[in-house]
Automatic annotation (TrEMBL):
GO molecular function, one term: electron transfer activity
Similarity comment text for this entry: Belongs to the cytochrome ubiquinol oxidase subunit 2 family.
GO biological process, any: aerobic electron transport chain
Keywords annotated in UniProt: Cell membrane, Membrane, Transmembrane, Transmembrane helix
InterPro entries: Cyt-d_oxidase_su2
Compartment(s): Cell membrane
GO cellular component terms, semicolon-separated: cytochrome complex; plasma membrane
Protein's name in the database: Ubiquinol oxidase subunit II
Parts of the chain that traverse the membrane: 6-35, 80-99, 111-135, 155-178, 190-212, 224-244, 256-277, 297-321
Pfam families cross-referenced by the UniProt entry: Cyt_bd_oxida_II
Species this chain originates from: Caballeronia glathei
Length: 333
């Protein structure tokens, strides 16, 4: 058994689940400025109040797994992306505090609204920046980061930051369609298609820009057998958009969220294909960056125990708090 690939799969799954689960509740904060009424904002927050902190478990799992299984990759990425990652964590802290305090505040409620908006949008943006910087390539010499502190600040990484803001906003809007009703739900229906159009535009730009800024990714996309496997992806993206349009017109409540997940899964598949295990960093393979086999074996036993627990309580939380959320219902603790 190749433990290195097994650990890579676990970390990839953790990151995907984080993007899906924390993506829509970050998207709610991004949508806050378009819904200034406090009662609407209370209801929007109540749709994720029971589950939002559990969603961030997957971010912790991904970081801890990277540290345990790929310490060289962990230290390199952390050194290269120190500033955007710290700013992301600061935004998540402000957002988490606003979740707890906003429900009990009166005179300062508008300030905690701003903290929630800024924390959600900022955390999303810096996650996208980190992704773009990683795709740009992190310079490595003798197994150590050899770039500068602002190497992540490029036009491509700034755009991927904005693209992820659009993605999370779309996820949040589709989640709220499924969880609300009445006039508020109708307003979400009105903005979901413009967000879908923006999503399609960002997917197109990133898909064109990514191979142009990295020859290795261009070769993996176009000069390998993967090219024929990737050909259906644009068709599937357009199919998701068409089904999204039909779902909006028929006022289907759950299908828009499924289509938004389709965009995420297709984008994530493209990301995984872009990152070759034979050169996870310039001149460094996945196996070069891995911890010793004994360390991987020890930690994967812990992962095998803890993963079913996380999946179990996450599933239970969503099952218990399934259904619509209405005005006057509170799930704050």
């Amino acid at each position: 058994m190749d433990l290195t690939l097994a650990w890579a799969a676990i970390i990839a799954l953790g990151v995907l689940l984080y993007v899906v689960l924390d993506g829509f509740d970050l998207g709610i904060g991004i949508l806050f400025p378009f819904f200034p009424d406090q009662h609407d904002r209370d209801l929007m927050m109540n749709t994720v109040a029971p589950v939002w902190d559990g969603n961030e478990t997957w971010l912790v799992l991904g970081g801890a797994g990277l540290f345990a299984a790929f310490p060289m990759l962990y230290s390199t990425v952390l050194s290269a992306l120190y500033l955007p990652l710290v700013l992301m964590l600061v935004c998540l802290i402000f957002r988490g505090v606003s979740f707890e305090i906003r429900a009990k505040a009166s005179r300062t409620k508008h300030l905690w609204d701003l903290a929630f908006i800024g924390g959600s949008a900022g955390a999303t943006f810096f996650q996208g920046v980190a992704l773009g910087a990683f795709l740009n390539g992190i310079p490595v010499t003798d197994g150590r980061f050899s770039g500068d502190a602002f190497g992540w600040f490029t036009p491509f990484s700034m755009f991927t930051g904005l693209a992820l803001v659009v993605t999370y906003a779309l996820l949040g809007c589709c989640w709220l369609i499924a969880k609300t009703e009445g006039d508020l739900q109708r307003r979400f229906y009105r903005i979901v298609w413009p967000l879908t159009v923006l999503q399609l535009a960002t997917i197109a730009v990133v898909s064109i820009w990514t191979p142009l800024q990295d020859e290795g990714i261009a070769m993996r996309w176009f000069d390998s057998p993967l090219f024929f496997k990737l050909l259906p992806v644009p068709v599937l993206v357009l199919a998701c958009a068409w089904l999204m349009r039909r779902s909006i017109r028929s006022k289907h409540e759950k299908r828009p969220f499924v289509m938004a997940l389709g965009f995420v899964l297709l984008g994530y598949a493209g990301l995984v294909v872009s990152i070759s295990p034979h050169e996870i960093l310039p001149g460094v393979s996945l196996w070069d960056a891995a911890a010793p086999r004994s360390s991987q074996l020890f930690t994967i036993v812990g992962a095998a125990v803890i993963l079913p627990v996380i999946v179990g309580y996450t599933t239970l939380g969503y099952w218990i708090f399934r259904g619509k959320v209405r005005h006057g219902e509170h799930h704050y603790h």
